[in-house]
C-alpha cells in the first residue's frame, strides 16, 4: 500500500465532504469514536492507490484537512482507525476502504469478495473475528467535483398540489427498449431527458415524474451471485451521488441537464429517496462506508446488546436520525438535491422510520420538526410512505402538516370494489371523498391523500386484471416473496388470453380503475406504463429484474390498440378541465349557499340519497356521488378559478346492468353524460331526464348538471 508524504493543511471542519475552492480541496469527515482517519488518493482509473494521508485535525468530532492543488476529478476514499469491539458496537477496520458519506460522485461499483466484510467470513462467530484483507480493489471511489453549472433561467414549476398528477417511473426501465433513443443513452439520465420521453409525458398530461431511487446504490451480493440486480435501487450507499450506472459519461452534471429539460417542459422532478437504511445490511453485512466510519452513530443498535442492529426497515439496519450528525447528513443531502440539483420534492421510502426516536414514532421527531421549519425543504413537495415494519410502524394520517401521504387504503378499497367484493360501498366512498376520515385534521387538504391503484411494488394495472396469484419464480425465492393480498382478479383465465369477452372485460376494468383514480378527491399517482397496459407477467415483486420483465416495451405499444392510452389522456385532461374534481377542501355534505345543493351527496339507484340501511347492504355495488363545485368566495379566490359545476359519478361493480334514476336538482335542468368507461369512444350525450338510466355492469359514468333556467 503506497504511502507518500504530501503537504496537507489543517483545513476546516465546517463543510463535510470534499469541497473544491478553485485552489485545492478541503476534506472533512465526521467520526466521533475514530482514533485516526486516512485520506487515500487513487489514479484516474481508480485501480491504484497513489497516496494515503492522515487528516491532521480533529474538531468537534470532525476529521479534516486541506490539500492544495487537488481538484475536480480526483478519486479518493477513507480508511478509518479505531477499536474493533463488535459486542460494544465498534467496528472500525482500516483495511476496508470507505465511501465518503458526502461524496458528490462515485466512480465504479462494488465488485464483491469476502474482503468487503469487516469480520472473517469463514469463522464460526463471524461478526466477531476481524478480517485484515484490503477491500480497495473492489470498492467504488469517490470523486471530487466542480459544482459549476449554467442553469440559465431555470425555475421550479411549483405546480399546486390540487393540479398535480404524479407519474412513477424508473429511469433505466423506461428508456432501455425505446427505439427512438440512441442506444448508448438508454438507461441514463440523458436518455430519459430526450424529446421522445418528454414529448410523451407532456402529451399524457402528467405534471410530475417521481423517479425511483437515483442515489448511488449497491447490487446485493446474493443477487449478483444469482445473475440478478437490485433493479429498483432501494439499497443506497451514497446520499449525495447520482447512481453511476445512470450517467452516460460519469459526470453528475448530466442529472442537472435532465432536470432543466423537464422544467422547460413544465414537469416537476421528484425523487424517491431511501434515508431509512443503507446498503450495509445487518451486523453481518459488508463494511462499505457508515459501519466503518462510526457504526454506533450512524445506525440504531440494540441498547442492551449493541452488537446487533435494530431492524425497523426489514433491510437489516435502521439509520439513526436521533444522532445530530446523521440528521445533519440527511438534511444536507435533501437541501443539496433541491438547491444544487434543482429537484422539486421527494417521496420518502418507509418514512415512519424517519419519524422514529428511541421511544418510537413521534410527530415531533427531530427529523420531522427540522424539515417543517427548514426554509428550503418546507417549500418543496414532501411525500411520505407512512409505514415501516417496526413496532407501531403503520402511521397513515399521522404525519404533520406540510406532508402528503401515500394512501394504500385507497388502493385496496378501489381494487376490492371493482373486483366485486361484498360490503365495499362505505369504504370506497370514504376513499373517493379524499379519505377525510384519515386526513381531515390540522388544516390538511384533500390532496394530502396521494391516491394510488398500483406502484412499482405489486401488480401493474394490467396484471391486476389478468392474474389471481403472483408469479415471482424468476426472483429465485420459490415464489415466496412479494405480497399475497393483491385483491386482483384474472376475470376467468390466469394470464394472457385471446378470449374476446375476457379481453373486453379486462380492458373495461382497467378503464374503471384509471377513471376512479382520476375522479377521486386527492392527488393521483400513476405507475408508468399502466396507461397502456404494461405487464410484468404476474411478477408482483420485480425488484431484482433488470430485464424485459420490468422494462417498458415501447414496441409492443406501437403494435397494439392504443385505446387505453387515449382514454388515459382524456381522463387526465378531463380532471384538469373540471375543477369540481379538484376541490380545495374536504366535502362533508353541507348545503352550499350559492346553489342550495350539498357539497357532496351519495345516491342509491332509486335516485334518493343513501340511507343507513342501504349503506349496510353488503350486496350493494352501485352508487352515485354528487360533487358540487360551488364554494364560498374565499375558497374561489384561493383556487383561482370558478368551481360552479355539479358532477355526478355513477359506479356499478355488479356484473349486470343496474337501473339508476338520476336525481333531479332543479325544475329546469338535465344531466349530460360526459364520460363512460363502457363506451369510451362515445362523445358527450345530449341531456338525460330523471328517468331510470341503465348503468352497464362494471362501468363508471360521469354526468354534468346542465341548468337551463
How many distinct beta strands? 33
- What is the name of the CATH superfamily of the domain at 163-281 and 345-365 and 382-554 and 567-579? Glycosidases
Largest sheet: 8 strands, parallel, barrel
Could you say what the CATH topology of the domain at 163-281 and 345-365 and 382-554 and 567-579 is called? TIM Barrel
Query: What is the subunit organization of this protein?
Result: single chain
Shape: elongated
Contiguous runs where pLDDT drops below 50 for at least 5 residues: none
Averaged pLDDT, please? 94
Describe the structure using short key phrases.
709 residues, alpha+beta, TIM Barrel, Immunoglobulin-like, 8-stranded parallel β-barrel, 6-stranded antiparallel β-sheet, 18 helices, 33 strands, elongated
Put the structure in a nutshell.
The protein is α+β, with helices and mostly antiparallel strands. 22% of the residues lie in helices and 21% in strands.
Describe this structure in words.
With 709 residues, this protein is of the alpha+beta class. Helices cover 22% and strands 21% of the residues. The protein is elongated and about 90 Å long. It starts with 16 loop residues before the first strand and ends with a strand.
Amino acid at each position: 500500500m503506497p504511502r507518500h508524504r504530501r503537504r496537507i493543511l489543517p483545513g476546516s471542519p465546517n463543510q463535510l465532504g470534499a469541497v473544491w475552492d478553485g485552489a485545492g480541496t478541503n476534506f472533512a469527515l465526521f467520526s466521533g469514536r475514530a482514533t485516526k482517519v486516512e485520506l487515500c488518493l487513487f489514479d484516474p482509473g481508480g485501480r491504484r492507490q497513489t497516496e494515503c494521508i492522515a487528516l491532521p485535525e480533529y474538531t468537534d468530532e470532525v476529521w479534516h484537512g486541506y490539500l492544495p492543488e487537488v481538484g475536480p476529478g480526483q478519486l479518493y476514499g477513507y480508511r478509518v482507525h479505531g477499536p474493533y469491539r463488535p459486542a460494544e458496537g465498534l467496528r472500525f477496520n482500516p483495511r476496508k476502504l470507505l465511501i465518503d458519506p458526502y461524496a458528490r460522485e462515485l466512480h465504479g461499483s462494488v465488485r464483491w469478495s469476502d474482503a468487503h466484510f469487516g469480520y472473517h467470513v469463514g469463522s464460526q462467530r463471524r461478526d466477531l473475528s476481524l478480517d485484515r484483507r484490503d477491500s480497495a480493489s473492489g470498492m467504488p471511489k469517490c470523486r471530487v467535483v466542480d459544482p459549476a453549472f449554467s442553469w440559465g433561467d431555470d425555475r421550479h414549476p411549483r405546480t399546486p398540489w390540487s393540479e398535480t398528477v404524479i407519474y412513477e417511473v424508473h429511469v433505466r426501465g423506461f428508456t432501455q427498449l425505446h427505439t427512438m433513443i440512441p442506444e448508448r443513452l438508454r438507461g441514463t439520465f440523458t436518455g430519459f431527458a430526450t424529446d421522445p420521453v418528454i414529448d410523451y409525458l407532456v402529451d399524457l398530461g402528467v405534471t410530475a415524474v417521481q423517479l425511483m431511487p437515483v442515489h448511488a446504490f449497491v447490487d446485493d451480493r446474493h443477487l449478483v451471485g444469482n445473475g440478478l440486480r437490485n433493479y429498483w435501487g432501494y439499497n443506497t450507499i451514497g446520499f449525495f451521488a447520482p447512481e453511476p450506472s445512470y450517467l452516460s459519461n460519469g459526470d453528475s452534471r448530466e442529472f442537472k441537464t435532465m432536470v432543466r429539460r423537464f422544467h422547460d417542459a413544465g414537469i416537476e422532478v421528484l425523487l424517491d429517496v431511501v434515508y431509512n437504511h443503507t446498503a450495509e445490511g445487518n451486523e453481518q453485512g459488508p463494511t462499505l462506508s457508515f459501519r466503518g466510519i462510526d457504526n454506533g452513530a450512524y445506525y440504531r443498535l440494540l441498547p442492551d446488546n449493541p452488537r446487533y442492529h435494530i431492524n425497523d426497515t426489514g433491510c437489516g439496519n435502521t439509520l439513526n436520525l436521533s444522532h445530530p450528525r446523521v440528521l445533519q447528513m440527511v438534511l444536507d443531502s435533501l437541501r443539496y438535491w433541491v438547491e444544487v440539483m434543482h429537484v422539486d420534492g421527494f417521496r420518502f421510502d418507509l418514512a415512519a422510520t424517519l419519524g422514529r426516536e428511541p421511544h418510537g414514532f413521534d410527530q415531533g421527531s427531530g427529523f420531522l420538526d427540522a424539515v417543517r421549519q427548514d426554509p428550503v425543504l418546507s417549500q418543496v413537495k414532501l411525500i411520505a410512505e407512512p409505514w415501516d415494519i417496526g413496532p407501531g410502524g403503520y402511521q397513515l394520517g399521522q404525519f404533520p402538516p406540510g406532508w402528503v401521504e401515500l394512501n394504500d387504503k385507497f388502493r385496496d378499497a378501489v381494487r376490492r370494489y371493482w373486483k366485486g367484493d361484498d360490503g365495499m360501498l362505505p369504504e370506497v366512498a370514504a376513499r373517493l371523498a379524499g379519505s377525510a376520515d384519515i386526513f381531515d385534521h390540522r388544516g390538511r387538504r384533500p390532496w394530502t391523500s396521494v391516491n394510488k391503484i398500483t406502484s412499482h411494488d405489486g401488480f401493474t394495472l394490467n396484471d391486476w386484471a389478468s392474474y389471481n396469484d403472483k408469479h415471482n419464480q424468476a426472483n429465485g425465492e420459490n415464489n415466496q416473496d412479494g405480497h399475497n393480498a393483491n385483491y386482483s382478479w384474472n376475470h376467468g383465465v390466469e394470464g394472457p388470453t385471446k378470449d374476446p369477452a375476457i379481453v373486453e372485460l379486462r380492458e373495461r376494468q382497467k378503464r374503471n380503475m384509471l377513471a376512479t383514480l382520476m375522479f377521486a378527491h386527492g392527488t393521483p399517482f400513476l405507475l408508468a406504463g399502466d396507461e397502456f397496459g404494461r405487464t410484468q407477467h404476474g411478477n408482483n415483486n420485480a425488484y431484482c429484474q433488470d430485464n424485459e420483465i420490468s422494462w417498458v416495451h415501447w414496441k409492443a405499444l406501437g403494435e397494439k390498440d392504443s385505446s387505453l392510452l387515449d382514454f388515459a389522456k382524456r381522463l387526465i385532461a378531463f380532471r384538469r378541465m373540471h375543477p369540481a374534481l379538484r376541490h380545495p377542501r374536504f366535502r362533508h355534505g353541507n348545503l352550499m349557499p350559492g346553489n342550495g345543493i350539498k357539497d357532496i351527496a351519495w345516491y342509491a339507484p332509486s335516485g334518493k340519497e343513501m340511507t343507513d340501511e342501504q349503506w349496510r347492504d353488503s350486496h350493494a355495488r352501485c352508487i352515485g356521488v354528487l360533487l358540487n363545485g360551488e364554494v364560498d368566495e374565499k375558497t374561489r379566490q384561493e383556487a383561482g378559478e370558478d368551481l360552479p359545476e355539479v358532477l355526478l359519478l355513477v359506479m356499478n361493480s355488479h356484473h349486470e346492468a343496474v337501473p339508476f334514476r338520476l336525481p333531479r336538482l332543479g325544475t329546469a335542468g338535465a344531466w349530460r353524460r360526459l364520460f363512460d368507461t363502457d363506451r369510451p369512444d362515445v362523445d358527450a350525450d345530449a341531456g338525460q331526464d330523471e328517468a331510470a338510466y341503465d348503468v352497464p355492469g362494471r362501468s363508471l359514468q360521469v354526468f354534468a348538471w346542465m341548468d337551463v333556467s
